[in-house]
Amino acid sequence: GSAGASWGHDDVIIFAPVGGRGLRRVTASGGTPEVLTEPNTQVGELEHGWPHILPNGAGVVFTITRKGHDARLAVLSQDSQQWTLLTPATGGAQYLPTGHLVYAFDDELLSIEFDPKKLTVQGSPRTVDERVLTSTTSFGRLGKAYFDLSTTRTLVSLPAPSVLENKPVWVDRNGKITEMAFPPNPGHYSTPRLSPQDGRLAIVRQADVLGRETWIQNKDREQWIQLTEMGSDNRSPVWASDGHSLIFASNRLGPQNIFSKTLVTGEVTRLLASSDPQNPVSQ
């Protein structure tokens, strides 16, 4: 199978065979495909997919999955043959002549300013559609977003269903499933993270299409505590190595920046301030 293909103006096709093989390039007339990229396994890259050739031929926007991380957009420079990570995404992106990349993250269709000469994103993403159908587990976790754009900027997409409720459970190494004795409130749950010290669970609850909250269990796992109460979007929890604080992304002060909350005192500190969207990751 292939995670997408892109046909350039010079009759070169770039495609992405799945299975950790990276991007390949072949002429429209046929021939032996050339290796364009291969996942950098030393930094945990697993798959490259969903290539989109930029109109000026200066680069290729594509998607990367890495071990233990959300999929992210990246851009390959045709000059240096090096790629740079851009922003978290589900599936691929497409470039508009207005100077924007259009892509999905979770169930939102977003656009962000993109400079095709510098190959950099600018500013914060804007919502194009609040509900577009996506799959985060397709194509080796590259994901897939069900939308397409024409050169005349006409958008077609499949709408996402209403928030689907699910229920987190415990699964041991033998695959045995145990329901939680004290289940959380109804909602759609994602991004579970266990504390490295005492096994407390942090998890993100999506209560509606746009709203996300981060919750944690207390040490005896008999009570759920809402960690985040400010902002409409609190996601991507990461435990500090000592287990005393939790780092997360939030839009509570405007752009999606990275914050840390000390669990004992409840003190919240913004760690990074930027107009660009940010998400913490663990190494």
Automatic annotation (TrEMBL):
Recorded hits in InterPro entries, A to Z, give: 6-blade_b-propeller_TolB-like, WD40
Entry protein name? Dipeptidylpeptidase IV N-terminal domain-containing protein
